[in-house]
Amino acid sequence: MSPSASEIDDEAALWAVRIDARGLDGVEDPELQAWLAGDHRRAGALLRAQAAISFLDRGRALAGSVPAVEGRGPSRRALIAAGGAAAAMVGGVGLWTLRPRRLDTGLGEIRRVPLADGSMVAINTSSALEVDIKARARDIVLKQGEAWFQVAKDAKRPFVVSAGPVRVRAVGTAFSVRRSERGDPRVDVMVTEGVVEAWVEGVDAPPHRLSAGDMIVLASAAPTPVTESPSEIERSLAWRNGEISLDGESLEEAARLFNRYNSRQIVIQDPDLAKERFVGLFQTNAPESFAAAVAATLGADVDTDARTIRIGRARAS
Asked: Which tens digit of pLDDT belongs to each residue from 230-277?
């Protein structure tokens, strides 16, 4: 089974750190050459990881905070701790410019991008956001889709994410924000670490204070109550690892989740079958595996072509 893009990015981050720390010669190192030869995507991932390290050094230099040469190792290992964030950098994205920077993902694409302040953002499929890191504020505008933020602590520069009228503010924490599709004003906020405040602009009400494991749905109307569901949050954020975690969702809902990531769309042809519940862990880019599991578990028929995976009730023999 071929490694996922996320796995390749993580491996590339490790190699970039080794090369930088040890001065490895990529041409002469046989282990590195063997790794590069194993998958055509690895060379590009390694270049992106090395570019990210270069940008990080440049940013520290501009900020006047470059550590001594002897202390550079831990800063590289921090890239690995960020889950390969450096390797997900796309060449040409300027980490340290002061003007707002737009970040986008296409269908099925998941990106992890380090920000100029040391924070990291994981961006889900078909999403877009603008990042504006300034001297006294860190402003993020989520135009569409979903993103998870791991925020570097900086009490003097609030980190605020805007999603329509919704605002989410944090200092040093981790949380996700998701805008619903098709013009729905609903915004889901889930906290995985620390504390955030969330509110709706123009609504005369105090901010909602959320701690790790809390989630809330906000819109221009009255919000749903804050609920505590750490396990549900972890399942909902499985996309960060390129996965879809099902725990009793209907086949109709499962199909909708897979269709967010793939041009080959799943269609549940039978209304009663669409209501069936399913459990399993699948790769976001493997709708065929999901369909095969449904066929094996529920005795369904699967019919595929280049554009569609149709799942229906098995025909009587």
From this structure: 889 999 999 999 999 999 999 999 999 999 999 999 999 999 999 999
User: Half-sphere exposure (CA, 13 Å, Cβ side) for 294?
Assistant: 33
Q: Domain 242-313 maps to which CATH number in 3.40.50.300, 3.55.50.30, 3.40.50.720, 3.30.465.10?
A: 3.55.50.30
Please report the pLDDT score of residue 307 as a whole number: 95
How many Å apart are CA 104 and CA 301, to the nearest integer? 37
- Give dist(CA 10, CA 91) in Å, integer: 17
Structurally, at CATH architecture level, domain 97-240 sits in Sandwich (2.60)
In the chain, where the domains are located: 1-93, 97-240, 242-313
Contact between 258 and 250 (Cβ < 8 Å): no
Identify each DSSP E strand in the chain by its residue range. Answer: 101-104, 111-114, 120-123, 128-133, 138-144, 146-150, 159-163, 166-170, 174-179, 187-193, 195-200, 208-211, 214-218, 227-228, 243-250, 265-268, 277-283, 300-304, 308-313
What residues form DSSP beta bridges with 266?
309
Residue 286 to residue 307: CA distance in whole angstroms: 14
Residue 117 main-chain phi, psi, to 5 deg: -90, 0
List C-alpha distances in Å: 189 to 88, 128, 194, 249, 250: 24, 17, 13, 20, 23
Supply 88's token pair: 């997900």
Quote the tokens at residue 245.
Answer: 């975690």
Q: What local confidence, expressed as pLDDT, does residue 10 receive?
A: 77
pLDDT digit string, tens, across residues 92-127: 333 333 456 899 999 999 999 888 888 999 999 999
